[in-house]
From TrEMBL, chain A:
<dbReference type="InterPro" id="IPR030678">
    <property type="entry name" value="Peptide/Ni-bd"/>
</dbReference>
<keyword id="KW-0732">Signal</keyword>
<dbReference type="Pfam" id="PF00496">
    <property type="entry name" value="SBP_bac_5"/>
</dbReference>
<dbReference type="InterPro" id="IPR000914">
    <property type="entry name" value="SBP_5_dom"/>
</dbReference>
<dbReference type="InterPro" id="IPR039424">
    <property type="entry name" value="SBP_5"/>
</dbReference>
<protein>
    <submittedName>
        <fullName>ABC transporter substrate-binding protein</fullName>
    </submittedName>
</protein>
<feature type="signal peptide">
    <location>
        <begin position="1"/>
        <end position="24"/>
    </location>
</feature>
<comment type="similarity">
    <text>Belongs to the bacterial solute-binding protein 5 family.</text>
</comment>
<feature type="domain" description="Solute-binding protein family 5">
    <location>
        <begin position="76"/>
        <end position="440"/>
    </location>
</feature>
């Protein structure tokens, strides 16, 4: 009996003896964040289109215009560009660049670097390139359309786009300014430095990338020469911690300062812990229900109308999505120019039944494919239950994210439940995917458009209104145009926005000015402080 | 043997030559079967990867890509080639030491594996060590005092080890030993202040911190590894103690043990001197296999403890259709099993008194 017990006691004792006295307390000048960062594929700003990758880029690069993390509601602000002027015909915008900014290599940031960065992104033509090419840039013309002269940069577009539209797009990750000399020194086979930038950075941002170990950690070091002043946090370490419960433990113990992926259960229990606070921040992602118009039943307007009343909005946000989503029934997220506040639909099974009876529909079966994430499956099951009450059967097939996406892009998901995040901070980002579909044929293969994926034949006037809103020079008039589009959308579209994502960040006391990026951007660290 | 040889000396030399030939042939045979095993493994994994309903191109280009961007990536990844061509070109690359680029990390798979394998190796080695140090004595004593208290304890330990979900035990362990008692470090391989501080030599942080002579980093790394390693150790001890017990019971009922007892040898000498020596050989295989399974099977432990190892690397690769990562990881696990088998084979010969 004694032998194994002694061994165990010895092991425990040795663990005790070896354990440092106190685990708590991260260094005062270091910010430690737990986050799921396993989606980073590339750190090249012309390629990166994932949340965690953009989080890194947003801190290592500057853009011509940017958000002030201490006042994000003010919208885009001067950054590398100090001022800009729109030409009389509205076709060109000329930016004046500041002359005191330097890249991490020590090279000065010149207008030529900024122009080259935009040209490069257009020529590489990776997934996010559309954010720039929608202004009429192509690989062939971009060298003439985007030019640098001294400390000015001129963008010439194919149409007189709304200046707010253009400038909002220039806050996007793909518009990051890279150090041309450093990147070209690492060019391989004419890739404009793409292979090298996948794992390195050449920016002028507040932080220098000091290490990236995929699926493990990202380490940033303060750039002491930063033109907006060296950030207070000298090191930022982002640790990949997949489990919410592990993040919670680390935060409670003081081993991390920030936890970014807490489940509602963990948020609830951590809220009572001393030394920790929860900060709610609305993000841009919209959880919506897509009703595929290729499905015979779903293409009936009465069914579409009934479905809007079969979602238990309050029940869902009050139970399993608690705190992580709010009801939001329009495709523009809170925080966007022209967002509509109206919520026309309520959970009303009787009304849904009446609508279906009036239309002579007596039940039916719909199969759907749902990503095997707890929250989506829960929403699907709640929907299944309320549909059953009006005689509609919902059969749920659970799949991995990649499988669902594959089927969705092939227009093969009858009822899609999932999230859509905006690509840039302008209302056109969601208007152009939810409410724009100029060619609904299979051959059009407009896989990037949600309307196309759901085979929603957007009415001609809505297509036109969406395009017109990108050309409206006056910001207020532009906002009103988007509100009109949203009202019409709410009245008839078969793609039904349901909820907006809220990020519930767990913060150690003392961490101040944390900003995850709100609905419009990615995280920024340079303004964060840790007082006592 | 060699009738044409007139002298004994020549006979001896020809015997030596024959022996060498046999050895070379046996080594060549081993290498050949090793290569074929790995090739088969690759083929099966490759086919599974291709029939899996996951689109690797989507992982690369993402949700928003246009059809043209999708098609460009499809061609760039070589997916437009016939399957057999893809496979052969992959094997050709592997022979040149090139495992391709991972689509989920954007880095060469060989580089990824060099980073994740030491993490898993370190964890599995310590886990197996704990399993052996506790499991073997437990099994031996349980067999020697069959039906006694220790035997009952061992039975319960093994039963719990088989039936308790590893993620539950892991989370409980974290909650108690890290969250409540603060005895061990939290998830991850190192505390934050030590992150990236010890120069990377072997990739095993315990070893590297000793090489660097950084006692603080060693303590920190040990405090992080001890809990997941104990958990893995627990599962392997459940298996090892059961196997040890049944091997021992078999030996203890053998005639030579009765003879030894009749000769008046002490119980201790009978058990450890005679019976245990005879089970050492099969036990080596059990331990080697147990180690091998920890190398590839500790996925859940790695996820719970945020341990950046091979198990979670392969799983993540599988879930995102990252076949280069999966194939590369599979080759490494395959090589490990082959090496472990070879190793236990050699130990067999070394330990088996009948072989000379």
């Amino acid at each position: 009996m004694t032998y194994p017990l002694t061994m165990r006691a010895m092991l425990l004792a040795s663990a005790l003896a070896l354990a440092p006295a106190a685990w708590a307390e991260t260094p005062a000048d270091t910010l430690v964040v737990a986050h799921t960062i396993d989606d980073i594929i590339s750190l090249d700003p012309a390629v990166s289109f994932e949340f965690a990758g953009n989080d890194v880029n947003n801190n290592t690069y500057d853009r011509l215009v940017d958000f002030n993390p201490l006042d994000p509601d003010a919208g885009f602000q001067p950054s590398l560009a100090t001022e800009w002027a729109v030409s009389e015909d509205g076709l060109s915008i000329t930016f004046t660049l500041r002359e005191d900014a330097t890249f991490h290599s020590g090279n000065p940031v010149r207008a030529a670097d900024a122009a080259w960065s935009l040209q490069r992104a257009v020529k590489l033509d990776k997934t996010p390139a559309f954010i720039l090419t929608q202004f009429g840039f192509t690989a062939d013309n971009v060298d003439q359309m985007i030019t640098a002269d001294g400390n000015t940069l001129t963008l010439t577009m194919d149409k007189p786009y709304a200046p707010t539209f253009v400038l909002n797009c220039l806050t996007a990750n793909i518009a990051s300014v890279v150090d041309m000399e450093t990147v070209m020194a690492n060019e391989v086979d004419g890739d404009m430095g793409n292979a090298w930038l996948n794992t390195n950075e050449a920016g002028s941002g507040a932080y220098v990338l000091s290490a990236w170990r995929p699926n493990e950690a990202v380490q940033l070091t303060a750039y002491e020469e930063y033109w907006q002043g060296a950030p207070e946090m000298k090191r930022v370490i982002v640790r990949n911690v997949a489990e919410s419960s592990a993040q919670r433990l680390l935060l409670e113990q003081g081993d991390i300062d920030v936890a970014r992926n807490l489940t509602p259960t963990d948020v609830e229990s951590i809220a009572a812990v001393e030394g920790v606070t929860i900060q709610d921040e609305p993000r841009g992602r919209i959880l919506y229900m897509g009703l595929n118009q290729k499905d015979e039943l779903l293409s009936n307007p009465a069914v579409v109308e009934a479905m809007k009343h079969l979602v238990d909005y309050e029940g869902i946000t009050g139970s399993f999505l608690k705190g992580q989503f709010v009801t939001h029934q329009t495709f523009l997220p809170q925080g966007y120019l022209g967002v509509l506040e109206e919520q026309p639909w309520t959970y009303d099974v009787e009304k849904a039944r009446q609508i279906l009876t009036d239309a002579g529909i007596e039940g039916g079966t719909i199969t759907t494919r749902v990503r095997d994430l707890r929250e989506y499956v829960d929403v699907a099951q709640t929907l299944q239950a309320s549909m059953a009450q009006v005689g509609l059967t919902l059969e749920i097939e659970q799949m991995t994210g990649a499988q669902v996406l594959d089927a969705y892009r092939a227009r093969e998901v009858p009822i899609f439940l999932g999230e859509w995040g905006p690509d840039y901070s302008d209302p056109n980002t969601n208007a152009a995917t939810f409410a724009y579909n100029p060619d609904n044929s299979d051959e059009a293969a407009a896989v990037g458009l949600l309307a196309w994926r759901n085979a929603y034949e957007v009415p001609a006037e809505m297509n036109e209104a969406t395009v017109a809103a990108t050309l409206e020079q006056d910001a207020d008039a532009r906002a009103a145009m988007y509100q009109d589009i949203q009202r019409q959308y709410q009245a008839e579209a078969p793609i039904v926005p349901l909820f907006q994502r809220i990020e519930q960040v767990g913060l150690r006391d003392g961490v101040q000015n944390w900003w995850s990026g709100g609905a419009i951007s990615s995280v920024m660290y340079r303004q964060v402080t840790k007082g006592e | 043997m060699a009738p044409t040889d007139p002298t004994g000396a020549a006979t001896a030399s020809s015997r030596r030559r024959a022996l060498t030939r046999r050895r070379v042939r046996s080594v060549a045979g081993t290498v050949l079967s090793l290569a074929l095993t790995l090739l088969g493994l690759l083929l099966v994994t490759f086919i599974i990867g291709r029939v899996m309903p996951i689109d690797p191109v989507l992982k690369v280009v993402g949700d928003r890509a246009t059809q043209a961007q999708y098609d460009a990536a499809y061609v760039a990844m070589g997916l437009d080639q016939p399957l057999i061509v893809q496979f052969l070109s992959y094997v050709g690359d592997v022979l040149r030491g090139d495992f391709g680029r991972s689509i989920s990390t954007g880095q060469p798979v060989a580089q990824d594996i060099a980073r994740v394998f030491p993490a898993t190796f370190e964890l599995a080695a310590l886990g197996t060590f704990i399993g052996v140090v506790i499991g073997v004595p437990l099994g031996v004593i349980a067999a020697a005092r069959r039906g006694g208290v220790i035997d009952q304890v061992a039975r319960v330990v093994a039963l719990v080890g088989y039936s308790m979900p590893i993620f539950w035990l892991g989370l409980m362990g974290l909650l108690i030993f890290y969250g409540m008692l603060g005895w061990v470090g939290g998830p991850g391989r190192q505390g934050i202040i030590y992150d990236g501080m010890v120069p990377n030599v072997t990739g095993m942080i315990l070893v590297d911190s000793l090489i660097a002579g950084d006692w603080g980093a060693f303590r920190d790394a040990f405090s992080h590894i001890i809990l997941p390693a104990s958990l893995l150790g627990y599962y392997s001890l459940a298996y090892i103690s059961r196997m040890t017990r049944s091997f021992m019971l078999e030996q203890l009922s053998a005639e030579y043990i009765t003879t030894a007892r009749v000769k008046g040898l002490s119980e201790r000498a009978v058990i450890w001197g005679h019976a245990f020596r005879n089970i050492a050989i099969p036990l080596v295989t059990v331990i080697a296999l147990s180690f091998g399974s920890l190398l590839e099977g500790s996925v859940l432990t790695e996820i719970i403890f945020s341990w950046p190892g091979l198990g979670s690397y392969i799983t993540r690769g599988l879930l995102s259709g990252d076949m280069n990562a999966v194939l590369g990881g599979t080759v490494v696990v395959g090589v490990c099993f082959v090496v472990l088998n070879l190793f236990s084979d050699i130990l067999y010969r070394f330990l088996d008194p009948r072989s000379t």
